[in-house]
Automatic annotation (TrEMBL):
The keyword Manganese does not apply. It comes from Mytilus edulis (Blue mussel). InterPro entries: RNF213. Its EC number is 2.3.2.27. This is RNF213.
């Protein structure tokens, strides 16, 4: 109708000149408005689509349906009986809504034009939590639908949920306002593309949802069986384990702790997806699910307390087994909790009364007992004894004394006091603690107890690398130091690198000292004089036979070489366990084959502890070095990395270097 018309104003001015008749201002305005009809077509299409797919009855639409019909007749060129004054009001009403419909909103409305089934499905799952479909996709290896498509469905549900509730918008105008609010506040993007993807995969999405829903019914059946007939079985050996058993159709069913954890998660999902309608059956089922979740939480709490007792060294929990029904779980939990608290209190009393118990971590008590029962842990127990005194060699006498007297009697203290101690310039392992990020306050507390109660006068105890401790542990250490007696027969040194910015040292500014560190030459001389049996083997190029050189040297010394390889992510516990598995003796040579490691600085510190202190530990895992000859082979791939890692590398790289030349 208005093809080729660029400006209606210019057209009207030309018409006035040709007809020589001035138009009335009302006529002028109506014609200009009428010329905008092509701009209203897409907006009117959006209005019609929205009223259809969101199920708005024509009576709820704020403008006259008869006028819309006339407007459609006009655009269809069937306008002989339509007056312009009838069209202008509807254009004004459409224009009022047109201002609300942004380009993004219009794209979304047109995208849902052919998606009524998708919207019906979203209405079906409206009050449920469909995020569990993501896990279902992973379990079925995306055989139903891609995970990204399920994510799109979850986002569409979140976007359309306020609209599909049906009572949020009482008119079409408020509907558009609500949709625009979702666009602005939801943070979701590419909604039309997501609608298209979910519409194309709607059948697969429904199949996945039905499959998971059926599994939910199976979950409820299992939960009901556990609640009615289940008994909980707790087993503590190397690891903690909880399971539940019940008989069904003359067969025993068993669910492991992993199964129980999964059932608990499913029960929570079922509780969240319950229909919000007030229904007695649903209310009862939700109540049962809540009881089940609480019972599983109690069972897991029991296993946690059992593990605490084992880690605390309680002898009865080296191996523990208990069976009880769900009604007795609370009593069992309270009994174990009381047992744990009494055990910890007893340990505190014993550590105050018996000095050498402060050398043991909690788990070490159990290791020592297991040794006496011929149940292994020999290496761990020997490490404990050598940690107390590196000259404690005659373990047979210790065994006989142990068998004669109870564990906590003072005879053990006297026995250890009769053993001579090292009096050189280097500290013993029990006198120094190198802090790491995973150092516990229990380790620090034990060293402080040893320092305060040492029977050997003027023994210096040290806590090094305090800056590595988490702030929480630093605060606890600060408070503990403040509680130390002002005058006492003990010596304690706290070492902290990088003084600048260390808040811990600022609290002790009146006691702060900044000694000059040893020069590289002094450190090299000291280590060469005291550990001449340690050799670092390097070469300029690979393939020159460093390993063969070490094996030949061991044979010449009439000893056997045992090797442990260290590379990749530095795992202190794994290295200690590897050393213990070698079962080194005095006739062995330790061969440390060092490859590319993630933390050369930490490796330097580990080697220092192993060689100088002859003892390394991590938590309850410990090892005491039992041979003298050590060869450290550094692979060519890490030469530069170790050399440039830090100032600590003087020991590991430059001290005992022997170049292998062929």
């Amino acid at each position: 109708m208005f093809a080729g018309v660029e400006s209606m104003t210019i057209e009207l001015e030309q018409a006035e000149k040709v007809l020589n008749i001035p138009f009335h201002s009302k006529t002028w305005h109506m014609l200009i408005e009428f010329s905008k009809i092509p701009l209203y077509d897409r907006k009117l299409e959006s209005i019609k689509v929205a009223s259809n797919v969101f199920k708005y009855d024509s009576k709820q639409i704020s403008f006259n349906c008869e006028t819309i019909h006339k407007y459609e007749q006009l655009t269809a060129k069937k306008s002989s009986d339509i007056k312009m004054e009838d069209v202008i009001p509807i254009m004004h009403q459409i224009d009022a809504i047109r201002g609300i419909i942004s380009s993004d909103l219009q794209a979304i409305i047109l995208a849902v034009k052919n998606s009524t089934e998708l919207l019906d499905f979203l209405r079906e799952v409206m009050y449920g939590d469909i995020r569990f479909l993501i896990d279902a996709v992973e379990e079925h290896s995306e055989q139903y639908v891609r995970e990204s498509t399920v994510s799109d469905l979850i986002e569409l549900k979140r976007f359309f949920q306020p609209v599909l509730k049906g009572n949020s918008a009482d008119s079409l105008g408020s509907l558009f306002d609500l949709l625009q609010k979702q666009i602005d506040q939801s943070g979701l993007v590419k909604i039309p593309e997501k609608i298209h993807m979910c519409r194309e995969n709607l059948h697969s999405l429904k199949a996945l949802y039905r499959n998971v829903a059926n599994r939910g019914e199976r979950t409820i059946e299992v939960i009901e069986n556990i609640m009615r007939r289940g008994s909980f079985h707790f087993l503590m050996t190397l690891e903690r384990e909880v399971s539940v058993k019940y008989e069904q159709e003359k067969k025993e069913s068993k669910h492991s702790d992993a199964d129980l954890s999964d059932l608990r998660s499913r029960a929570l999902l079922l509780m969240n997806t319950e229909d919000r309608e007030s229904n007695r059956t649903r209310s009862l089922r939700r109540e049962e699910l809540e009881k089940f979740v609480k019972i599983i939480d109690k069972a897991f709490k029991v296993t946690h307390i059992c593990m605490q007792l084992k880690q605390a060294g309680h002898f009865d929990f080296a191996k523990y087994e208990e069976t009880c029904n769900r009604d007795n779980l609370k009593d069992l939990k309270l009994r174990l909790q009381e047992q744990y608290e009494q055990w910890i209190a007893s340990l505190e009393i014993c550590r105050r009364n018996y000095y050498y118990l402060n050398f043991y971590t909690l788990t070490n008590f159990m290791n020592y007992t297991l040794l006496e029962k011929n149940m292994g842990n020999n290496e761990a127990t020997v490490a404990i004894l050598r940690f107390i005194d590196p000259l404690t060699e005659n373990l047979t006498k210790i065994r006989e004394i142990y068998r004669t007297f109870p564990l906590f009697q003072s005879v053990i203290t006297r026995m250890f006091l009769e053993t001579s101690s090292t009096t050189g310039i280097f500290p013993q392992a029990h006198q120094v603690l190198f802090c790491r990020r995973d150092t516990t306050f229990d380790e620090i507390s034990l060293l402080l107890n040893r320092c305060l109660k040492t029977p050997i006068a003027a023994s210096l105890y040290s806590i090094a690398n305090i800056e590595m401790l988490p702030l929480r542990i630093q605060f606890l250490l600060h408070d503990e130091i403040q509680r130390l007696p002002k005058e006492g027969n003990f010596l304690l040194c706290c070492l902290c690198r990088d003084h600048e910015g260390q808040s811990f040292l600022d609290q002790f500014s009146d006691m702060l000292s900044k000694p000059n560190p040893l020069s590289n030459l002094s450190l090299k001389t000291c280590l060469n004089e005291n550990w001449e049996q340690v050799t670092v083997v390097t070469s300029d190029t690979p393939g020159l036979g460093k390993t063969e050189f070490i094996q030949r040297e061991a044979i010449l010394a009439k000893k056997r070489s045992l090797c442990i390889h260290i590379s990749g992510p530095l795992n202190r516990i794994s290295i200690i366990e590897g050393l213990a598995s070698l079962s080194l003796r005095s006739y062995n040579v330790l061969h440390l084959d060092i490859g590319d490691v993630s933390d050369p600085v930490e490796l330097d510190l580990f080697l220092f502890e192993l060689i100088v202190l002859r003892y390394v530990s991590s938590g309850s895992t410990a090892y005491a070095l039992s041979c003298n000859d050590i060869y450290i082979e550094i692979a060519n791939t890490v030469n530069d990395i170790v050399q440039l890692s830090s100032d600590n590398n003087v020991f590991s790289k430059k001290t005992f270097t022997v170049d292998v030349v062929r």
